[in-house]
Amino acid sequence: MLVALLDPYIYEGGVHKHGLILELLEDLGGYLVQKTAASTEVTLIMLIPRKDVHLIEELGTKLLGTITRAPMTGTEIAVVSPTLAYHHLPHSACDVAEYLRHGGANTNMIGLARGMGRRVALSADYERKLINEHDIAIFTFGTFSDCIMNKKPKLLEGINIPIVVTGGPDLNVEDIPNADMYIGNIGRVAHRLRGVDELKGLDRMNEKVGELVDRVREDIAKDPLAVLSPRVMKEIHEQIPDIHNVLAPAPITLQLDGLRVKLPYEDYHVAIEMLELDEGVLLSDVARITPSKMKNYILIKIRRRSDVGFIL
Predict the structure, then answer these.
(1) 89-93, 184-188, 213-217, 264-268 — which one is most confidently predicted on average?
(2) Domain count across the chain
(3) Residue 218 Cα to chain centre, angstroms
(4) 300 and 265 both lie in a single domain
(5) Hey, is 64 helix, strand or coil?
(6) What are the contacts of 145-150 at 24+ separation with CB within 8 A?
(7) Residue 244: which pLDDT band, with cuts at 50, 70 and 90?
(8) How are the residues of the chain apportioned to helix, strand and coil, as percentages rounded to the nearest 5?
(9) Which one-letter DSSP state was computed for residue 266?
(10) Which is nearest to 60 in space by CA: 82, 42, 38?
(11) How far apart are CA 13 and CA 64, in angstroms?
(12) For 114-123, 168-177, 293-302, which range has the lowest pLDDT when averaged over its residues?
């Protein structure tokens, strides 16, 4: 239930007095996921208690800002391309990743080592493990129905998270083995996706992926996490000052069931494990902390209430 009580929103407005939004958010028990300031404008990605969203909206209106629901806030999505070759990257895959960020998601682009020929279309074990560290995997395929239905599904094998496939033709998801969702009208092109129909396809993608994220949240709410990942992020900011020196984008990346902390595992995993959440309760008591396949960062996966027997 606790997971379902927080709704994801993005505030966009002027830098002047935006601190009032942050103060109200803290008073309401919400969490700031990410803050981006550019010149005189600021963007705040937030998780707001559902019953108090109207208070943030009223204050945002007074400050002449806008607040919109961003269902993909607090998610990390892998945008996977069959290869790094020029005919698979960068145009459509980059546009897919950029559009998902508009919806609040953090995205990582992954180019597989092989996926060009029918007999060699295969993802390596390392690649599968890296993709499975994310919340959702979006595979950006091309414009040939036969390729999408008969060759590329090999790349989806071993992926344990929800899989979304994008492509040019109009297909049914039942035609693509192992896929959970298919979104058409986003094929492989040699230009940026800026046409009217192409933008409609990207808008539909964000809508459908947002619905998928909401379903995952509802599933988690049936057996809630022992502690909310935004709370863990807040504790890391307060108890491990070195995180403020990390220059990588989103030093702490929220996931639906955990976090990715962009600090070296060897140097900081003990400090992360010993993070105190409540009196006598450490993070290692309620989460699995392992080295990530991405640059040896720290991956935190929070255990469920049914596993630990309580919620913080």
Answers:
(1) 264-268
(2) 3
(3) 16
(4) yes
(5) coil
(6) 145/169, 145/171, 148/176, 149/175, 149/176, 150/118
(7) very high
(8) 40, 25, 35
(9) H
(10) 42
(11) 7
(12) 114-123
In sequence order, what are the beta bridge partners of 236?
none
Give the best-scoring range by mean pLDDT among 71-85, 118-132, 179-193, 279-293.
Answer: 279-293
Q: Within a domain: residue 98?
A: yes
Record the tokens describing residue 4, joined without a space. 């379902």
| Torsion 188-191-193-196 (CA) sign | negative
Residue type, 174: E
Write the CATH number for 28. 3.30.70.240
pLDDT at 118: 56
- Given a contact cutoff of 8 angstroms between Cβ atoms, the answer to whether 87 and 71 are in contact is no
Backbone angles phi, psi at 55, to 5 degrees: -70, -40
| pLDDT tens column, 259-286 | 999 999 999 999 999 999 887 889 999 9
Range of the domain at 253: 229-308
CATH (domain of 140): 3.40.50.10350
Q: Please report whether residue 224 resides in a domain.
A: no
